[in-house]
Amino acid sequence: MLQNKTLAFLTKLKKHNTTEWFKDNQTDYKNSRVDFESFVSQIIKGLSSLDNNIEKQDLQAKKCIKRINRDIRFSNDKSPYKTNYFANFNPYGHKSEHASYYVHLEPNNSFVGGGVYMPQTPILNKFRKEIEHYFKEWETLMNQKSFKITFPNGIESPSELKTVPKGFDKESPAIEYLRMKGFYTMRKLTDEEMTSENIVSEIIKYFGEVKPVIGFLNRAL
Description:
By secondary structure, this protein is of the alpha+beta class. The protein has a single domain (4-218), classed as BirA Bifunctional Protein, domain 2 (2-Layer Sandwich). It contains 11 helices and 5 strands. Strands 1, 2, 3, 4 and 5 form a 5-stranded antiparallel β-sheet that branches. A hairpin with a 4-residue loop joins β2 and β3. α1 crosses α3 (26-50). The mean pLDDT is 97.
């Protein structure tokens, strides 16, 4: 389980997001990082039992966790650090573009889910083709009662095209999904849930609901 101190550190970081403050609070940062790495390790262990591809990859917690430093080169927001911890669990390795599982830890804004957020166009079109060609199967996954309960918003997208993407049928019954620029799910979790004793098993249960969707998408690659 996660420690409340880890959420407390992220709360303070949001309020004091400067290089000077971060340097002065290295001990708290390192403790929170160790706590999150331990949490991620537990998730990897549970997820390995759920997904054989995860087990084959022998994922390492440190490599699953994204850097806390922000890339501010092209951003108007010059805050140097992210105010969250994010871990990605890819069935085909850390650097793969396949659909994956993920967990996001942030005070009052934590969530878990699976899918792909904003893949490059060639990869995105492969996912689109898989959905178009096997749309009935995709619809069945989307309409599973337990899936809809776990992820009330269903499949989400970072943005959508106004028209059908080039090379696809504008009359396709899958047009709603073909216009999407990503395919991901999100289940929001409270701070109390994230620090509860059974949170790891709950997250693995949620991953179990999105696993068929991840498997469907990854057939395309």
